[in-house]
């Protein structure tokens, strides 16, 4: 009897839907993601320009990484809200839509972050090699 009540509550949680589709949340999610992606791009561009100009490891300090990571996470949160709202508009339950959106955005966000790191590493190695060729010309 008690387990049937808990089972019913869990089922109600997964199948709960708002009476109105969350169009407002979709717009808010898109607004958050667009407002966070611009600082992310600008900070990343400044970081690359600083590093290419000074060839210093100071460009990749913890503070700089946090400055890049904060707008990136904001972008991911905005996209997650927009995706969950879109899934809910298409008929998925609220909890299920946010769960699916969170899983998808977590995996995609991690893979994109790794790719950004790989691209920056390749640029770092290329500039070190070009600088070493300038310092030590080959005969």
Can you describe this structure in just a few lines?
With 139 residues, the protein is mostly helical. The chain has helices at 2-15, 23-54, 62-89, 94-135.
Characterise this structure.
By secondary structure, this protein is mainly α. It has one domain. The chain has helices at 2-15, 23-54, 62-89, 94-135. Helix 3 (62-89) runs antiparallel to helix 4 (94-135). The protein is elongated.
Helix content: over 70%
Oligomer: single chain
Structural class: mainly alpha
Give a short account of the largest sheet.
Answer: none
* Estimated radius of gyration: 22 Å
Number of domains: 1
Strand coverage percent: under 5%
Mean pLDDT: 82
Query: Span from first to last CA?
Result: 87 Å
Order of helices and strands: HHHH
List the helices and strands and how they pair.
Layout: H1 2-15, H2 23-54, H3 62-89, H4 94-135
Helix pairs in contact: 2-3, 3-4
Task: Give keywords.
0% strand, 139 residues, mainly alpha
